[in-house]
Amino acid sequence: MSHEQSALPERDAVDGLDDSTTLDLGVTTGSRRVAADAAAIRERRLGGVFTFSAYLLWGFLPLYFLLLAPTGPWEIVAWRILLSLVFCALLLTVTRTWPRLAAIFRQPRVIGLTVIAGLLIYVNWQVFIYGALSGHVIETSLGYFINPIATVLLAVLVLRERLRTTQWVAIGIAAAAVGVIVVGYGAFPWIALTLAASFGLYGLVKKKVGPSVDAVSGLTLETLWLSPIAIVVLAIVAATEGLTMGTDGWQHTLLLSLTGVITAVPLLLFAAGARRVSLTTIGLLQFVAPVLQFLVGWLLLGEPMPVQRWIGFGLVWVALIVLTVDSVLHARRARVAA
C-alpha cells in the first residue's frame, strides 16, 4: 500500500512533465516552421529583386555603350575584358575567396569548359556592342527574345532531349518569324541569330560546369583566358586608329574605366537571385532585358520598325507566349506530381 501511494505521485509528476514538454515542443516546432516559411518568402522576394535588377541593368546596357563614343566596339570589348578581370580580382581579395578559385585549377575538365565559355561570351559581347553602336539595338533585342527558343533547340541537338509538342510549335513559329524578317525586311538578322546562338551555347556550357564554379570565379577565369586577345586587340587599335582611353576628357575616361563594374554587377545580381527563385520565375523575368532594349531602340533611338519587322517580332512574341505558358503549366504539373 505504501509502495502504491509513493508510486502514484511519481507517475503523475512524470505524466505532467511529458504533457508540458510535448506542448512546449509543439509550440517551438510550430514557431520554427512559421519562422522558416517567413524566411523562405523573404528569400524568394529578395531573389526576385536581385534577378529583376540584373535584367533591368542589361536592358539599358546599350545606352551605356553609346555614351562611350568615340570609342569603337573593338576597343570597348577589350577594355571590358581587362577591367572585368581587375574588378573580379578585387572582389576575390575583399571576399577572401582566392582559395575557391585555386581549387578550380585542380579540375582540368572544368578549366577546359571555362575556356570555351570565355570564347563564347567574347563573341556575344563583340556582336552585342557592334549592334548597339551601329544602330541595330532592336536587332540585339530580337537575339535575346529568340534566346529561350534557341536554348530549347540546343537541348534537342546537343543534349538529345525530347521536346513536347508545344515546344516544337514555338520553334516553328520562331523559324517563320526569321523567314518573315529575311524576306519582308530584306536583311538577314545575323546579329540577332549570333547573339541567340552564342548566349544559348554559353548557357549550355555553364550548365555543364555546374555549381562547382561560382559567378565571380567563373567570370574571373573567362576574362583571364580572354586577356591575351584583349591585349592584342588594343595593340592593333593603338597602331591603327589610336586608343581613346584618356584622350577624350575625364568623364569619358571614367565611363570607359567602369566597364568592368558594369559587366560584373548585373552578373553577380543574377547569380544571387538565381539561387533564391525558381527556374519558372527566371524564365518569366528574362524577357525584361529584351523588352527594354526593344523600347530603347524604337522609342529613344528612333530605329525603324516597318510593317514586316513588326510581323516578324509579333511572331516571335507569340512563340515566346506559347513556350512560357507551356513551361509554367509543365512546372505546375511536376509540382503536383511530386
Explain what you see.
The chain contains 14 helices and no strands. It is mostly helical and 338 residues long. It has one domain (12-337). Helix 1 runs antiparallel to helix 11 and helix 3 packs across helix 5 (108-133). It is globular, with a radius of gyration of 27 Å.
Annotation field: number of helices: 14
The chain-level mean pLDDT equals 86
End-to-end separation: 59 Å
Order of helices and strands: HHHHHHHHHHHHHH
- Measured as a percent range, the helix fraction is over 70%
| Content-based structural category | mainly alpha
Note the main attributes of this structure.
mainly alpha; 0% strand
SSE blueprint and pairings:
Layout: H1 2-59, H2 61-66, H3 73-95, H4 98-104, H5 108-133, H6 137-157, H7 165-185, H8 190-209, H9 215-240, H10 250-257, H11 259-274, H12 279-285, H13 288-300, H14 307-337
In short:
The chain is an all-alpha fold and 338 residues long. It has 14 helices and no strands.
